[in-house]
Design brief:
Blueprint lengths: L8 E6 L16 E10 L1 H11 L2 E2 L5 H9 L6 E7 L7 E4 L27 E6 L6 E4 L5 E6 L8 E8 L1 H11 L2 E2 L3 H4 L2 H4 L7 E10 L2 E2 L24 E5 L6 E4 L5 E8 L1 E8 L1 H11 L2 E2 L5 H11 L6 E9 L4 E4 L22 E5 L6
Parallel strand pairs: 1-18, 8-11
Antiparallel strand pairs: 1-16, 1-17, 2-15, 3-15, 4-12, 4-13, 5-11, 6-7, 6-11, 8-9, 8-10, 13-14, 18-19, 18-20
């Protein structure tokens, strides 16, 4: 379906602007952190954040962690929005931020452990003639592993021929490359397969499962545990805190302990009134800071999540095609530096504004 600028649909406004005028790759986020220097239990802190902001802080990746730390001078402990209240139910996650875990039995060998492999909470992939699948094994096994480098286009996967347990291999990949290989597109893909032609082995990939959940229900998979202080086993310490003292690394404590805390505040607002693109643009500029634009994959995910709540099939974004300039531009004057379109690509017509399908992708 094609949408034109005079169609009436809902839209998303932004209540703040990026600081830089250029593309703010990776550092620009659609939420802000607030440090609250009052001592509260975890659930009191949650109530405070939900009333005064959006919720207790959630953390998407290392950039968020850096923003969180930068939002206070405090060097003690502070609650974040991660909590183990799932009754011990574990959920699988991919290590690479933004890659959603989707169960697909055909990628798993459900009783595919070998030799001395004990069942566990980390995922490894096997390469031999018959079995090429995932299995859940104990995270303290040591084996070779596959790192993924998102900066490279030609060679994105690396087989690291060192024996490490899962946590060590994750740290290694995060320090030398981007992360452990994550997502079925990666681990079942041809590029990774090519590393193993004629070889038989098991390797770690970026798959783990834990019992921790974010207060706002989001599925962010990023974890930043302090491995010396945190123990993910039987424990009554079921709320997570950041140790600003120790580079912000996380540990857990009993939830009724009183500590300062971090809230987050959404800066993206879905306006529940149908308007044309020009009206929407005008409305957002007057009442807020502008119509939302997307400059990186993380923002894309965030905006998609918001758009899911819309009652119209599409929502407006601050993007428009200009024939005279022959390029797409964001209405806050950034050039288009991140593009993700619905399957059939961009439309070549002039003066077409862009909406995002409420289910997700751009149109
Ligand atoms: C919070 O508690 C700590 C330790 O109990 C204390 O040092 C600090 O002064 C308290 N902060 C506030 C704002 O009450
Ligand atoms: C919201 O903030 C105000 C002012 O800081 C505070 O008095 C109030 O208790 C907060 N709400 C909750 C639920 O804690
Ligand atoms: C946090 O502060 C440090 C030092 O001031 C700076 O280098 C870094 O870029 C900041 N991080 C973010 C995400 O703004
Ligand atoms: C910093 O951490 C050390 C040990 O990890 C602790 O003894 C000290 O009290 C912490 N300092 C603050 C300000 O919390
Ligand atoms: C844990 O999982 C089981 C089975 O999926 C479900 O019935 C139960 O409600 C879950 N418990 C919690 C606290 O989510
Ligand atoms: C699961 O994976 C198989 C093989 O890669 C694919 O054909 C199938 O469509 C996938 N199923 C789902 C539900 O994604
Ligand atoms: C991995 O190895 C490190 C260093 O030997 C150790 O501290 C850590 O507990 C191990 N992790 C697991 C899950 O076995
Ligand atoms: C989190 O993941 C579950 C299962 O994969 C999904 O049903 C749920 O909608 C996701 N939640 C959000 C906020 O995306
Ligand atoms: C998480 O909660 C479950 C069930 O309440 C408990 O068995 C487990 O020990 C907890 N894990 C941690 C790390 O606190
Ligand atoms: C948690 O466990 C510790 C030691 O295992 C105990 O001292 C403490 O009282 C327990 N806390 C609660 C709230 O049960
Ligand atoms: C906006 O328009 C859609 C149809 O495109 C309609 O379903 C929806 O109810 C309208 N929403 C409002 C708030 O008027
Ligand atoms: C993409 O366009 C082609 C031809 O224009 C059409 O056959 C195809 O169905 C379109 N695919 C989608 C996903 O819209």
């Amino acid at each position: 379906m094609r949408i034109l600028h005079f169609d009436l649909i809902l839209f998303l406004c932004l209540s703040y602007f990026c600081i830089s005028g250029q593309c703010c790759f990776f550092t620009c986020r659609l939420y802000e952190y607030h440090f609250i220097a009052e001592n509260k239990s975890w659930s009191e802190a949650q109530r405070y954040c939900r009333e005064n902001y959006t919720d207790l802080a959630k953390v998407f990746d290392m950039t968020d962690m850096s923003r969180l730390r930068n939002s206070t001078q405090n060097q003690g402990e502070a609650w974040i929005g991660l909590n183990n209240n799932t009754g011990g139910n574990r959920t699988w996650h991919w290590s690479l931020p933004g890659v959603e875990y989707i169960q697909n039995d055909s990628s798993w060998n459900l009783n595919g452990r070998y030799g001395n492999e004990a069942p566990g909470n980390c995922g490894r992939k096997r390469y031999d003639n018959g079995d090429k699948k995932l299995a859940d094994v104990s995270c303290d096994h040591t084996m070779w592993f596959i790192c993924y480098d998102e900066m490279k286009e030609d060679k994105r996967f690396y087989l690291i021929e060192k024996f490490m347990n899962w946590t060590q291999s994750q740290s290694y990949c995060r320090s030398q490359y981007t992360d452990l290989a994550s997502g079925l597109n990666q681990v079942d893909g041809e590029e990774m397969k090519a590393l193993f032609i004629g070889r038989v082995m098991s390797v770690w990939v970026g798959l783990f499962r834990d019992t921790w959940r974010w207060s706002d229900g989001s599925n962010f998979s990023f974890r930043y545990w302090d491995m010396q202080l945190f123990n993910d086993e039987q424990s009554n310490k079921t709320c997570a805190m950041t140790l600003l003292n120790r580079s912000g690394n996380w540990s857990s404590d009993e939830c009724d302990k009183e500590k300062p805390f971090f809230c987050y505040d959404d800066t993206l607002i879905l306006i529940n009134v149908n308007k044309t693109w020009e009206e929407a643009l005008d409305y957002c500029r007057k009442s807020h800071r502008g119509l939302v634009s997307i400059t990186n994959p993380q923002e894309q995910e965030w905006v998609q999540d918001k758009a899911k709540n819309a009652s119209s099939p599409f929502v407006w974004l601050g993007l428009r095609y200009s024939c005279t300039l022959d390029l797409w531009f964001w209405v806050n004057d950034q050039l288009v530096c991140y593009e993700k379109w619905s399957k059939n690509g961009t439309t070549e017509e002039c003066d077409v504004a862009v909406g995002m399908q409420s289910g997700g992708q751009c149109q």
